[in-house]
Amino acid sequence: MKLSFTLLSLFLILNTPFTASANDKDLLKTAKALFGIIPAKQERPDKITAEQTELGRKLFFDYRLSKDGSTACVRCHQPQFYSTDRLSQSTGFNNNKGARNAQSILNLKYQTIVHWRNDRINIEEQALRAFTTPLSLGNSSTEEALKRLDLAGYSPLFAKAFPKTEKPLTLENAATALATYQRSLTTRAPFDKYLEGDIKAISAQAQKGLKEFVTVGCSSCHNGPAVGGRMMQKFGVFHDYWGITKVANPDKGRQDVTKKDEDLYIFKVPSLRNITETAPYFHDASAKDLDTAIRWMGKLQLNKDLSNEQVSLIKAFLESLKGELPKNFREAPTLSSEPYAGPNI
Ligand code: HEC
Ligand code: HEC
């Protein structure tokens, strides 16, 4: 039921008239309605939030918090790769391999869905669980994770970031700090200037690509300020996705989480901001480059064989979504000097 509703709304959106002769202004107006601008100035966090953000930043970069000292959030969400790791499957604690491709944690502020299968309520819950999952930091228990935080010298920082709480050092507070930090990481791109009315901020090619992106129907799923991140959709609306991507063991997506028929092959519609920097693509890393990902999307989601020109125009548009990394992500924080405490504490 839910799926057919989704397909119906997709059909309606795709059939909404968009005049091919639309001039620059019409295109800008359409784009403004579909996406939202990431403001040049983010609202300033109050004092507590600033301390929480900085605490979250330290936690994000700290390898001492994993059971074997091998893993921190930043291992799989690296600044140099725009918060991904260039691997098909990430490796975490004990070199355990994750089931899916690492997603970027940039611009989460503008997204509502967490994980490819929407299996976390919010990014607080995501962070909370990362401390003890064997695919991530690998601590055997909450107590062990808390002990590592204490041994790495975090107690005073938690007390400062959560001053009104009786027991500041908790994993819930660590998760709050990590989520606060991650929500502060947004990237403004030339496309945002375009949306503000500076049409020349993106190239003529990118403008044509934007028009293609809208007219062929990409924006019926990839929309909002993050150009995605707000809905779950079937991967392979018109064809079985593995028929095109040639993966051997197709992932059932959300169905493995809910066990409901209508969730078969349903995945998060990812954000396309900074997409030029985060290859390989798709939950299973099956597309090694962006041209391939665009072409497959056309076929699988819209039943269209995009021409080489359409692919390269759309790519030019996607290039205009690349922004500068925030300084508090590009640069690693200063951590306390306590050594990694060892695997058995
Ligand atoms: C071993 C590598 C690894 C580590 C370590 C890791 N992540 Fe991830 N992260 C991933 C992968 C892989 C995914 C995609 C998982 C999925 O959707 O099934 C992901 C997804 C996410 C997402 C969801 C993004 C989205 O677009 O939905 C968030 C948020 C996130 N990670 C934050 C963190 C934080 C915070 C930490 C540290 C506490 C962390 N990660 C540690 C690999 C890692
Ligand atoms: C019906 C909804 C829908 C439409 C229409 C759609 N997409 Fe997607 N897109 C998705 C979903 C769902 C995924 C995630 C698939 C997966 O990996 O399981 C995705 C993934 C992608 C990715 C890979 C992102 C990453 O981080 O790996 C790119 C690039 C992309 N889409 C571009 C496009 C382009 C370009 C178009 C238009 C030609 C388009 N999409 C049309 C739903 C859609």
Would you kindly provide a written description of the structure presented here, covering whatever features stand out?
The chain has 345 residues and is an all-alpha fold. The chain folds into two domains: 2-40 and 187-319, Orthogonal Bundle (Cytochrome Bc1 Complex, Chain D, domain 2); 47-186, Cytochrome Bc1 Complex, Chain D, domain 2, CATH 1.10.760. 40% of the residues lie in helices and 2% in strands. It contains 15 helices and two strands. It has helices at 2-14, 24-34, 47-61, 73-76, 123-130, 142-151, 155-161, 171-183, 190-195, 204-216, 241-245, 255-258, 290-302, 308-319, 327-330; strands spanning 232-234, 266-268. It has a two-stranded antiparallel ribbon. Mean pLDDT is 93; it is low at 17-21. One heme C (HEC) binds at residues 71, 73, 75-77, 90-92, 98, 100, 102-103, 105, 108, 114-117, 123, 126-127, 130, 135-136, 178, 182, 268.
Compact description:
This protein has 345 residues and is mainly α. It has 15 helices and two strands. Strands 1-2 form a two-stranded antiparallel sheet.
Draw up the topology in text.
Blueprint: H1 2-14, H2 24-34, H3 47-61, H4 73-76, H5 123-130, H6 142-151, H7 155-161, H8 171-183, H9 190-195, H10 204-216, E1 232-234, H11 241-245, H12 255-258, E2 266-268, H13 290-302, H14 308-319, H15 327-330
Antiparallel strand pairs: 1-2
The structure holds heme C (2 copies).
